Amino acid sequence: MTRCQNCGEKWTFEEKLKESFKFTFDRHMTCPHCQSKQYQTHRHRKISALISFLMVLAMFIPSFLSAPWQVYVTTVVTVVPVAFFLMVHTYELSNTDEGDFWHE
Ligand SMILES: [Zn+2]
């Protein structure tokens, strides 16, 4: 469950999705309830990195099995949305910018 650390309101999946697109361009997300700046926690950045790694790994599995191209397409079409969903679903927020996890 994702809660704003400033006002304590829950963020819906749609709100997280909307803010995650903005997050690509700026490091913070804006709480839709209190308009405060919220940042991803260290923990969530690590989780995101792990999900990305598993996503890439999953996309390589068909090539190890010498699978036909239809399997590659099916894998990418399945894995990418699932990975994206998991990243958004597991969001954790912080009032401060904790920096990138490799800069602890
Ligand atoms: Zn808030």
TrEMBL record:
The reply on keyword Transmembrane is yes
Protein name stated in the entry: CXXC-20-CXXC protein
Q: Which domain of life is it from?
A: Bacteria
Q: Mind telling me which InterPro entries this protein's record contains?
A: CxxC_20_CxxC
Q: Which UniProt keywords apply?
A: Membrane, Transmembrane, Transmembrane helix
Q: Does the keyword Membrane apply?
A: yes
What residue ranges are annotated as transmembrane?
Answer: 47-65, 71-88
